Amino acid sequence: MKKIDLHTHSNCSDGSMSPAELVDLAAASDLAAIALTDHDSISGLDEAINRGKKIGIEVINGAEFSLFNDDTAIHLLAYCFDPAHPAIKNLIKKAQKIRDDRNKGIFAKFSDLGIEIDHDKLLLSAKGQLGRPHFAAYLVNHGMARNNQDAFNRYLKRGGPAYVARERLKTTEAMTEISRAGGISVLAHPMAVNHSRKTMTGIIRSLKDHGLGGVEVLYPAHDNSTIKYLTALARELDLAITGGSDFHGAGKPDIRLGGPGLMPPVPLTLLENLKKRLPTP
Questions:
Q1: Cα-based distances in Å from 228 to 75, 119, 214, 218, 258
Q2: 73 partner at 20 to 30 Å CA-CA among 99, 158, 194, 260?
Q3: Among candidates 257, 240, 277, which has minimal Cα distance to 3?
């Protein structure tokens, strides 16, 4: 069985590996394809795709967006869109503006705490896209925290002295723009959104009515019972079934590309089925 991974992150968002290194790891992990799904960013796609063409690994255009569905925070995976389409460019621009505003707030919070962080050095380490993991790494590297988890616990977690809540785009807007760009929307790690199956079923039904195309069923945190539940619900609602490891590299050292040991392998047939559901040009 040919295996894939449809949920990965590079150092163009909060992963530790470059897009090309990620593709090389996919080849070493005996994967036939990966989707690069950096947070609110498509800047690594060209590098990953070019590397994939050289070594025979299919790289799927992807991104992961942080959104609000009513008052519920969700993550949405976008696949197979045209990265040059104005709709996806506009969506990325809005998402980046929200990130930039939050980061300014975090800098200000640290300044109020008497902790001055070099903006230029931090931006360089983050390849242009900042997030809380980069602030945490900076604190570790400058002796202000023992490790990333300590940095989050002391400063950056929800309710922490440097925490800043972020705005989020609306799910319906994001799904519309993704579809306009020729892509398909998939709900990421649904049980992280809400652990109640009854509530989750209602959320997925609502998203389906507004353009959701699939559900991430195979995921490291989903046990066999959850996989069976999500599979049955996806089939009932005629939604695509996908899977991915949510690989970040050093930031999540227990998760290997492809998710071996933590989740069933993701078969290539799921990607083939996903492609069949893409909007007609």
A1: 21, 46, 15, 10, 20
A2: 260
A3: 257
Q: Are 33 and 148 in contact (CB under 8 A)?
A: no
DSSP type of residue 57: -
Quick check: 127 pLDDT over 80? Answer: no
Domains of the chain by start residue, with CATH: 3-85+168-276 (3.20.20.140), 93-156 (no CATH)
165, burial (CB in 10 Å: exposed 0-12, middle 13-18, buried 19+)? exposed
Q: Which residue has the tokens 């539940």?
A: 229
Residue 269 tokens read as: 């047939």
Q: What is the pLDDT of residues 7-30, one digit of tens each?
A: 999 999 989 999 999 999 999 999
List of residues 6+ apart from 6 with CB closer than 8 A: 34, 35, 37, 60, 62, 77, 79, 216, 242, 243, 244, 266, 270, 271, 274
pLDDT mean over 50-63 = 98
Helix (H, G, I), strand (E, B) or coil at 253: coil
Q: What is the DSSP letter of 42?
A: -
Q: Distance (Å, rounded) from C-alpha 38 to C-alpha 206?
A: 25
CA–CA dist 250, 180 (Å, integer): 35
Residue 20's pLDDT is: 98
Rounded-to-integer distance, Cα 83 and Cα 170, Å:
20
Mean pLDDT computed over 117-140? 82
pLDDT digits over 148-177, tens only?
A: 899 999 999 989 999 998 788 899 999 999
pLDDT(272) > 70: yes
Rounded to whole angstroms, the Cα distance separating 272 from 251 reads: 30
CA distance 81 to 60: 9
What integer is the mean pLDDT of 208-213?
96
